[in-house]
Amino acid sequence: MSSYDVAVIGSGPGGYVAAIRCAQLGMKTAIIEKYATLGGTCLNVGCIPSKALLDSSHHYDDALRHFEEHGIEIPGEVKLNLEKMINRKQAVVDQTCAGVKFLMDKNKIDVYEGVGSFEDVTHITVKKSDGGEEKIEARHTIIATGSKPSALPFIEIDKERVITSTEALKLKEVPKHLVIIGGGVIGLELGQVYKRLGAEVSVVEFMDRIIPGMDGALSKELTKVLKKQGFKFYTGHKVREVSRDGDKVTVKADDKKGKEVVLEGDYCLVSVGRRPYTDGLNAEAAGVKLNDRGQVEVNDHLQTGASNIYAIGDVVKGAMLAHKAEEEGVFVAETLAGQKPHIDYNLIPGVVYTWPEVAAVGKTEEELKEAGVDYKVGQFPMRALGRARASMDIDGFVKILADKATDEVLGVHMIGARTADLIAEAVTAMEYRASAEDISRMSHAHPTYAEAVKEAALAATDNRALHV
After folding, report:
1. What is the pLDDT of residues 172-184, one digit of tens each?
2. How far apart are CA 288 and CA 285, in angstroms?
3. Which residue among 55, 95, 316, 466 sits deepest, i.e. has the most Cβ atoms within 10 Å of its Cβ?
4. Which is catalytic among the residues 59, 66, 301, 446?
C-alpha cells in the first residue's frame, strides 16, 4: 500500500491546485479522480468549454452583424458550421486537461483514476471503473469533489431535449426555441451562445430579476441589453411542470398573480444551480459530516470533524467558483505546511461571461442598505469612453460604492467589455483597503476600458468625473 502525506480527492481547479501547492511545499502527494481526464467540471464541462463557445459564437455574431460597419465585407453568405465549432471547443478542453496532467507529472504527483472512498480517517479505497480496487494511506486528505447540476424534483432530465449545461455544450443542432429555467450565470451564458447562433431564447426565473445575487443595477442593465439582443424574460415566474412530446418540450409556469404561462420549445435547459457532490465518498466512515444541504461541514480552517481531513471548493459553503476553490486549495496546503494563509471571502470576485461581461466584488448596494452603512456612489457609463466607441462596445457602466465617512471602497460593480479582467483592479485596491480617491489619483492608460474605473472613482469622490 502506497503512503502519502496528502491525498486529494477530486481534480478540479481546487483539487489540482491544492495538489500542486502541497507538492511545492515538499509533501508526497496523490490525487484521485473518478473520470479519465483531469480538471473536473470547470475544465471538462464548465468554465473552459462554455467560454470557448462564447468566443466562437461572438465571432459569428460579429461577422453577421458588425463586420460591415467596420468596413469588412465578406463575399457570399456567412455560414455556421456547428460541428466544427463544437469540435474546436473540445480541442480547447483536451489541451487544457492535458496541461493539468503535465503539471501533475512535473510536480511528481501520483494520479489515481477511480472513485475515492474513505475506509477510515487515513485509508482510502480507489474504486476503478473496471471493478478493480486500490488502497492508499494518507496522513492528510483534502476533499475537493465539486458539484453537479441541480434539478427541480418534478423535472425529468432526459439529456436529449430536457438538458443540463453538460448536454448544452455538445448539441448537434441549434435549437429553434431554447427555454431556459433559471436566470443565473450558466443559463444566461449558454443562452447567449445559442441566441447568437439563431435560436429563440426564453428565460424563466423564479426571482424578480436575473442574476439575483448581484447588484440590482447590474441586473437591470444586463436585462436591458439582452432584451435588445432578442432574449425574452419571464421573471417572478414559478415553473410547475416540464413535459416532453417527441421533439417538443412544454414548460408551464405561474406568474406572481397565479396566471399560467405556457412556453413551447424544442429544448429546455434546466439551470437552477448546482449541488455538492459527495457520492461514493463514504464520508461517515472517516467521521466527516455533511449538513442538510449536502455540503461538507468545515471550520474556519476548512477542517472537517476529522482533524486530518479538509474540504474545499463547491463541496463546502460559499460561492461555487473555480477561483474560490483554488484559493481554498492553496490555503489548506499552506496550513498543512505550518504557514498562516488567509482568504477574504468578501473579495472573491464574481463574473458573468455574457457580452457585455458582468463583474463584481465586495458589497452590493442592497447589502449596504440592509446593513445600515452610510455610503456614496460613483458611476460612469462605458459609452463615454473613447475606447468603447472605437470598438462599438458602449453598453454598461462601472459603479463604485464607498464609505461616506472614510471613502474606503466597499464594492465595485461593472458591466461592459472586458470587465471580467477589469475587476482584478478593484480586488487589488480593496485588498489594500484603498479609498475611492486613491483609485481616482492613479494614472490609467488612455484609451482603455479601465479609464471607466478611474472615472467612477472620481464620481464617488465629490462627484468630479471628468468625461460626463
Report:
1. 999 999 999 999 9
2. 7
3. 316
4. 446
